Each structure stands twice: as structure tokens, then as C-alpha cells.
UniProtKB/TrEMBL annotation:
The keyword Signal applies. Residues 78-276 form the NodB homology domain. Keywords: Signal. One of its GO terms (molecular function) is hydrolase activity, acting on carbon-nitrogen (but not peptide) bonds. One of its GO terms (cellular component) is extracellular region. InterPro entries: Glyco_hydro/deAcase_b/a-brl, NODB_dom, Polysacch_Deacetylase. This is Polysaccharide deacetylase family protein. The keyword Signal applies. It comes from Actinospica durhamensis. One of its GO terms (biological process) is carbohydrate metabolic process. Pfam families: Polysacc_deac_1. It is found in: Secreted.
Length: 276
């Protein structure tokens, strides 16, 4: 008689909180205010990161681990990553000193069109970093990645436009910094299979999305999950994220709602406006 042996369940991926910030300021422009964390709140959150028992890591470490790079050490079981999108001036003024005081590394994904006078990006008016401030961040140990040139919803633009956005942003940063830039974050967190293939072909080694779920060592290298910090993110939820709770754990397939939302946005992007 053959005895059936039930296979052991696959181990649950270890949750990796990747925190996504935009602005750290007490008086932000109204349009970014919902995505702005006050200076005091940010200081408290970074104190919690430092005291949580988690090990702050660099974005390149996460990508190296996901890619299985030869010789790359595995991520600590209790890793955490802090990231910033867009490149607001308050990163230099407020966030960077708080991070430096606590020896917490960070990654900053820069919209290169906003670096130039006159703001060539789609971002509404706000004080943004300039090239000198980006270099200052690099000197302080911040990893710099691309965030496109004009900040479009990449999954709704034509393939050639997406390629130009990803290429120009990479080259502008590399020219300014004199170093390779091979990390990327998608504006709004939006991507598609085509966009991700394009990013890989251009020379990016990995890319960060949003998704508002916990990442893990099994996450997708070109769709790494992050958790968005808002002005009203409850302290209890932040604490739970650091414990690896209060959110799903990547990887998981795109939901039907996500696909439907993309289709709707594409339809709006490609539909000519009605004439009066």
C-alpha cells in the first residue's frame, strides 16, 4: 500500500517594507500636500526605523538580491528600505539631515525635467532640487535613480515616447553625476509589461513601482513593491508595516481592478477631446 506524503507548504516570503516618500515639509504646495509628511512626523518615523530592529539597506542591495547577482550577499531577514520620488527641494533641506543623523541610507528617484529652470516636467509648480543639490545628496551617500524626464503615466503613452522618457532621464543624470544610473522608479507607480521590457533593454537593472504592499525576496525585479506614506498615514499602520503586517506581501499578479484602471486611463489618453 502506497502511503501518500503531503508536501510541506512553501515558506511564506519574508516581508520587506520599502517606504515611499515624496515631500517632507510643514508648508507644502496644496497639490502635493496629501503626499507630504511633516518634518516632525518624518523624524519620528525615522526614529522608529532606527529602533525597530530592522536593518536599513540600499536600493541596489534589494535589486542585486532580486537579480541573484553572483557574489551579492542575501538581504537581511529584517531589511527595510527608504525611498523618495520626484526630487523636491525639501529632501535636501529636511529629509537628508534627519537620515544622516540616524545613518539611514536612502534612494532618491529624480524627475530630470524638473531639474532645469522653467520645469520641463508635468509636475505642478513646486520648489525642486537642482543638479548641485542632487550631487550633494550623492556625496551624502544617497543612491540616485531615474524617474523619467517629464513624469508621465508610462503605461498610457506610445512606446516610443516611453522609451524617450526612460532614456533621456537616465542620460541626463549620468551626464550630471558622471556615473551609471541603472535604477528606476515609475511615475505614479504605473508600468506595463511593455514598459518593463523597455526599461530592461535600455539598461536599467531594476525598477520600483508602488502597489502599496510589502515587498519580499521573491518580488519582481522590474515591479518592486513599495508602501506610500501620506500626510495622514496613522502611526499604528506605520508600526505594523515595520513589523511586516497590515499589507499583502509581493509577489502577486495584477488584479482585475488594476488592469481595468489602466485600460480606462489609456482610453482617456488616446481619445481626442470633444469639440465644443
Amino acid at each position: 500500500m502506497t502511503r501518500y506524503i503531503q508536501p510541506l507548504p512553501s515558506p511564506r516570503p519574508r516581508p520587506l517594507p520599502i517606504l515611499l516618500y515624496h515631500s517632507v515639509d510643514d508648508d507644502p504646495p496644496a497639490w502635493i500636500a496629501p503626499f507630504t509628511v511633516g518634518v516632525g512626523a518624518f523624524r519620528e518615523q525615522m526614529d522608529k526605523v532606527r529602533d525597530s530592529g530592522r536593518v536599513p539597506v540600499r536600493a541596489s542591495q534589494v535589486i542585486d538580491a532580486l537579480r541573484g547577482e553572483p557574489g551579492a550577499p542575501p538581504l537581511p531577514d529584517n531589511a527595510v528600505l527608504v525611498t523618495f520620488d520626484d526630487g523636491f527641494h525639501d529632501f535636501t533641506r529636511h529629509a537628508l539631515p534627519i537620515l544622516a543623523e540616524r545613518a539611514i541610507p536612502a534612494a532618491l528617484f529624480v524627475t530630470t525635467g524638473a531639474l532645469r529652470p522653467g520645469n520641463e516636467s508635468l509636475l505642478p509648480p513646486a520648489r525642486m532640487m537642482d543638479v548641485a543639490e542632487v550631487r550633494e545628496a550623492v556625496a551624502a551617500g544617497v543612491e540616485i535613480g531615474a524617474h523619467t524626464h517629464t513624469h508621465p503615466q508610462l503605461d498610457t503613452v506610445r512606446p516610443q515616447a516611453a522609451r524617450e522618457e526612460l532614456t533621456v532621464s537616465k542620460y541626463v543624470l549620468e551626464d550630471a553625476l558622471g556615473a551609471d544610473v541603472d535604477l528606476l522608479a515609475y511615475p505614479h507607480g504605473y508600468s506595463s509589461a511593455s514598459v518593463r521590457r523597455t526599461a530592461r533593454h535600455i539598461g536599467y537593472r531594476g525598477a520600483f513601482a508602488v502597489r502599496d504592499v510589502l515587498s519580499s525576496e521573491d518580488d519582481e525585479t522590474f515591479r518592486v513593491a513599495r508602501l506610500t506614506l501620506h500626510a495622514d498615514t496613522p502611526a499604528a499602520r506605520f508600526d505594523a508595516w515595520l513589523r511586516g503586517h497590515a499589507a499583502r506581501v509581493a509577489p502577486h499578479p495584477e488584479s482585475a481592478a488594476t488592469r481595468a484602471w489602466r485600460a480606462y486611463r489609456r482610453l482617456r489618453a488616446f481619445t481626442p477631446p470633444r469639440r465644443a
